[in-house]
Design a protein that fits this description.
195 residues, four-stranded mixed β-sheet, globular
Length: 195
């Protein structure tokens, strides 16, 4: 068993990995319209949410190819809102780090997710994690679970008409109906008894 680090475009790098050679994939792809990393063709800045979902589906199709039959995929993904148009004029970066990669999209020209481009109303929650899950299931993945990553020290939001989001989703998929999952390894009682 060994670890391998490949740096580059996800789809290109995945194509260099042999089929049926990986046990597990844990990933957090760029979220839709939430950050610009300053890289041409990057995932996350597509003009519509469907283009974003299609691009991720193509990447995860390659992940499926490289996974062994008992392999699993874990995707950390966050939702976002259709823009209301308010606050669109802010253009000052919040920090040097954000300036170095063009920053969080709420301060960038891509920030506004135009509701008409995705068929939702202004201020609607888009449902990105669910759209991705449905697309991957339709592409042959077994959608097995949704885990909540609770963030007790989350960044506060300036909104006053809903609660601050303090969680993200981790979606679990399996390549096959039967797959490797060590329940005892994550069961606190089982761990205590094995000592």
């Amino acid at each position: 068993m060994y670890n391998l680090i490949l740096q580059g475009d996800a789809l290109t790098m995945l194509k260099s990995i042999p089929s049926d050679s990986v046990d597990c994939c844990v990933t957090s792809p760029p979220y839709y319209r939430l950050r610009d990393y300053g890289v041409e063709g990057q995932i996350g800045l597509e003009s519509t949410v469907q283009e974003y979902i299609d691009k991720l589906t193509a990447v995860f199709r390659e992940v499926k190819r490289v996974l062994k039959s008992g392999g699993t995929l874990w995707v950390n993904i966050m939702d976002c809102y259709a823009g209301s148009g308010k606050g669109k004029g802010q253009t000052t970066p919040l920090s040097e780090v954000q300036s170095s990669n063009k920053g969080i999209l709420s301060i960038h020209k891509y920030a506004m997710v135009a509701p008409e481009s995705i068929g939702v109303k202004p201020k609607d929650l888009i449902g990105v994690p669910w759209l991705l899950a449905f697309a991957l299931r339709a592409d042959g993945w077994y959608w097995r679970q949704v885990d909540i990553w609770e963030k007790p020290n989350c960044m506060p939001e300036s909104v006053t008409d809903r609660c601050t989001n303090s969680h993200e989703y981790i979606l679990m998929f399996a390549k096959s109906r039967r797959y490797y999952f060590d329940y005892a390894a994550i069961n606190p009682r089982a761990v205590r008894y094995r000592r």
